[in-house]
Write a structure and sequence with these properties.
disordered C terminus; 6-stranded parallel sheet; homodimer; alpha/beta; 12 helices; 6-stranded mixed sheet; DNA-binding
Chain lengths: ~350, ~350
Amino acid sequence: MATQAAGTDRPATIHDIAARCGVAASTVSRALSTPDRVNIRTRERIEAAAAALNYRPNIQAKALSSGRTSAVGVLVPDITNPFYFDLIRGTQLQLKAAGYTQLLVDTEESDEVEATTVDQLRKSADGIIVAASRLSDEALLAAAATMPLVAINRDVPGVPAVIIDTPSATSQALDHLVSLGHTRIAYIAGPTTSQSSTRRWAALAGAAEERGVEVRRLGPFAPKTQSGAAAADAAVHSGVTACIAFNDLIAIGMLQRLRERGLRVPEDMSIVGCDDIFGADFCNPPLTTMASPIEQAGRVAVSVLLAQLNPLAGGGTRNRSVMPTHLTVRGSTGPAPEDTVERY
Amino acid sequence: MATQAAGTDRPATIHDIAARCGVAASTVSRALSTPDRVNIRTRERIEAAAAALNYRPNIQAKALSSGRTSAVGVLVPDITNPFYFDLIRGTQLQLKAAGYTQLLVDTEESDEVEATTVDQLRKSADGIIVAASRLSDEALLAAAATMPLVAINRDVPGVPAVIIDTPSATSQALDHLVSLGHTRIAYIAGPTTSQSSTRRWAALAGAAEERGVEVRRLGPFAPKTQSGAAAADAAVHSGVTACIAFNDLIAIGMLQRLRERGLRVPEDMSIVGCDDIFGADFCNPPLTTMASPIEQAGRVAVSVLLAQLNPLAGGGTRNRSVMPTHLTVRGSTGPAPEDTVERY
DNA sequence: CAATCAATGACAACCGATTGCCAAAAATTG
DNA sequence: CAATTTTTGGCAATCGGTTGTCATTGATTG
């Protein structure tokens, strides 16, 4: 009944190839992974046989015997946050190019889930890339000591990292607002566990003092559009004329809420977002935001990680990269309203 | 110098547990995976030891010896397409709940990449979920015959599938437009390789005939916002007063282009999208679109797949689910313009 | 032409589990 | 209390590779 021609139906192994070529399995293994260790003629025979049998190495077996899994875990706090789309694509492309598999995990903004995941990945991945880690500095450092790890947007001494330089862009944003005449400005803070938010606030507070304007901090708010409503209300209540939001999600949510309340952007209130996510260019009004090469950040993170995994020539691998960020001005920022409360 | 207390530093194996309890490794294996096969007292001792040693089973070893990988591949044509965000989250959550790992792969809209990936996943995953497959019917059927597979939005007899019922929503959309007075309508087609697009057009053409209105097909267009410009131009040139777009990305792109060209939506042109992706509610104007429970679709796909993998009790598992879809009316659709060309 | 050495490939142990088979121990039955 | 059945747990093979060790081969050299 077998429609199959000669040859077994199950996937070929190195043993099948070995038998076909009349050599030992170990020779096949070497021919395929350490080509120099085997005579070129033997190697060619083996390669031909492998092709003929449509041989695919069994990743599990490879991992078990060699200890290397050819997989890299990528942890993000929230898959549905558009910010991570490009990041994920960047890591995915770069990893695939290097022959690695990406294990993507949504840690649901939870440090516990994150810790558990890191723990599990210890043996099923060669390394880990953690975006916007919610772990404590100590926990992150400990994790990095145990296995190759690269953090994205998390600056802990001793932990290799790719940092997106939003703090400096935040200063640009402030300059932009100041040049438009705003003097009372709010920073809409992100989660307290987000180091990005903390660093950005620090940069902003410093810059504000230099420029002699008032910047107050509101929040924290969850990095979701839904939080934008509360943020908008808080901003209005605080009497500021411009806001710099933790990220575009919150900023877009604010835009929606302000519209609902009948306030005009940017006439009554200017809004600056961060990340230039999908949607920032077509929301209403289009969002002024801090843009950065996110996909590239993902690629760089992979490169840094792979450099750790394969410490080949040129030992001087840097393990900390800073990605530039710039302000993209769109329609959500404009001149400060004339009749501001501060006159009274 | 070792700060570590007694006990090795490397991860514990079943052998460590076995030694600690004075039993054989096989007993440990059974205690952990087939609890009934082992005396309850022995089991408890083993469990205690496992906990004490912080034992984590080695997934690779498990996979190698048992043949089951506890991993499921999820293939999407384009990770950065927001449509897939919720889908991915749905599969991720459901898979995690069932103890499976999700292997996410971006097939880059390419049937070749998709075929290669399916081939590679054959041994490193227990099953596959393919969203919007670009494979031919035959290839997909062949793949499904080789390994457990569930297709999303792809209806091929013999292939388990989760279908998002956009065709019926398309008819609703048409009714909506007709009730607003539109008589010349365009369908902005998606990729020719997309079965969704084909099925939707068939539904639309049929419904249009019933209702005695003219619907013409424009395209194909790539499912990206950038394609929206060409689509908008084509629509304007064709003289229609309303468009039903293949998906929200194209629709949003059209919105942008029409605005650039000084045309008002919905006064001059009505636009209907599809999928209700992130951004559809805050673009300008907010998009009328066909919404469906995408995350749920992902969960259902996982359920269908797991039912294949573990064909336990209640053999009557259905392997085809249809997810309902409904029209969500927002600001991008309105009454047909009075002075339409057809008067002349 | 003999001695030395690098290249080559076979053998076997090993990675960490699972699982079929079987014997010893315990429980049940007559 | 003996005979039988059921539990229980050990042994060893197996999954598909990798890798250290070692014997053989052929090439290089004195």
